[in-house]
């Protein structure tokens, strides 16, 4: 049976990984500066992660949410400890899309309203309401388009105010650093004013931290760079270091009711073991400190390369913007220099999302290869 052909694939077949590197079926080593869309947070096959998942699957991999699961409580307490989000409550699911779907559903339950405000170039997932709030008409099917969503320009404070004062908006959802959209960020004034507007208009402020959370921005959550208090925080990608897990942190003013949310696989024993191991490594190896040090070093080197026209993002969620589309450059990096990087809806942007364990030697390796790859691309242009 053939696979449903929805992914354009590079001709690379990874079969193993260790730390910042992956290895293909021919034994070639690749520097992974993309982490599978920011999923690999503590490095491939980290020994603490392998030990935790192996030990848990050997005793109990799964049972439903109809019984007590102390690992969920332990995970919730550890998230609270490291994030500083005191008094929030945790609901666990399986992915970022599901996290945002539940966040939007919960906002509608709480407010009794139906409309959502989202922003240009935002990406929130591919499920029904999450994809409707995503600024990409190509992935919104007619059944999704029935959702009531208004998409505004980022930083449009007056637009948000006007929409919220209409009285039918249940949620404003925003990425504090856009991922797929190209690493754009709102201003401090924008985020802090929107937070106040939501509170004044009985609207839930949802921080989509699916990609920017778990230390990637240099703080545990990207919204913590601002003076805001989200009502709901969605999390996923770096949460399980590759094991499927997601969730939402819910402000205590939102009261739970039996049956309001639910999931079969969410918060299972194996997922919780994986999630706990990630948090323990982030804490024990001081990875948020490493994020800030490595980010500063990366940006310093990036500023020395004249072809880079703009450096976007924060922490280890970075983008290098050029004055040409980077598709060919990414191919040179992966095939000629064996380095994984990412793209974005902004075709001139190279996305860098390495494991939080990345070191200066890895960054040096990348920039040496980038300089060579830029020369190769320029020579191709001249030749053609």
Automatic annotation (TrEMBL):
Stored InterPro entries: Aminotrans_3, Aminotrans_3_PPA_site, Class-III_PLP-dep_AT, PyrdxlP-dep_Trfase, PyrdxlP-dep_Trfase_major, PyrdxlP-dep_Trfase_small
Keyword Transferase in annotation: yes
CDD domains cross-referenced by the UniProt entry: OAT_like
Cofactor(s) needed for function: pyridoxal 5'-phosphate
Keywords: Aminotransferase, Pyridoxal phosphate, Transferase
Family in the record: Belongs to the class-III pyridoxal-phosphate-dependent aminotransferase family.
Identification of the protein by name: Aminotransferase class III-fold pyridoxal phosphate-dependent enzyme
Species, as recorded: Flaviramulus aquimarinus
């Amino acid at each position: 049976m053939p696979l449903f052909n929805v992914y354009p694939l590079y001709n690379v077949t990874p079969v193993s990984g260790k730390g910042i590197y992956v290895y293909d079926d021919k034994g070639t080593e690749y520097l992974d500066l993309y982490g599978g869309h920011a999923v690999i947070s503590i490095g491939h096959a980290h020994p603490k992660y392998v030990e935790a998942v192996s030990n848990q699957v050997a005793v109990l991999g799964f049972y439903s949410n109809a019984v007590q699961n102390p690992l969920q409580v332990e995970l919730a307490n550890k998230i609270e400890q490291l994030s500083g989000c005191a008094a929030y409550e945790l609901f666990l699911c399986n992915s970022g899309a599901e996290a945002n779907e539940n966040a939007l559903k919960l906002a509608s339950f709480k407010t009794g309203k139906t409309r959502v405000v989202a922003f240009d170039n935002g990406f929130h997932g591919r499920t029904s309401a999450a994809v409707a709030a995503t600024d990409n008409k190509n992935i919104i099917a007619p059944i999704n388009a029935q959702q009531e969503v208004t998409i505004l320009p980022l930083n449009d404070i007056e637009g948000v105010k006007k929409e919220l004062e209409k009285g039918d908006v249940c949620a404003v959802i925003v990425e504090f650093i856009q991922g797929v959209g190209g690493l754009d960020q709102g201003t401090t004034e924008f985020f802090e004013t929107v937070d106040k507007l939501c509170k004044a208009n009985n609207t839930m402020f949802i921080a989509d931290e699916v990609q920017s959370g778990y230390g990637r921005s240099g703080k545990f959550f990207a919204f913590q760079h601002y003076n805001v208090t989200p009502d709901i925080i969605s999390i996923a990608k770096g949460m399980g270091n590759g094991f499927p897990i997601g969730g939402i942190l819910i402000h205590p003013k939102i009261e739970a009711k039996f049956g309001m949310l639910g999931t079969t696989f969410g918060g299972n024993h194996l997922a919780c073991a994986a999630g706990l191991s990630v948090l323990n490594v982030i804490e024990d190896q001081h990875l948020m400190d490493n994020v800030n040090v490595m980010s500063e070093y990366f940006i310093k080197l990036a500023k020395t390369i004249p072809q880079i026209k703009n450096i976007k993002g924060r922490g280890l969620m970075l983008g290098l913007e050029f004055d040409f589309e980077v598709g060919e450059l990414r191919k040179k990096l992966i095939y000629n220099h064996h380095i994984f990087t990412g793209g974005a809806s902004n075709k001139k942007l190279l996305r860098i999302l390495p494991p939080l364990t990345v070191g200066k030697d890895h960054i040096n390796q990348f920039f040496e290869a980038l300089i060579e790859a830029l020369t190769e691309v320029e020579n191709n242009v001249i030749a053609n």
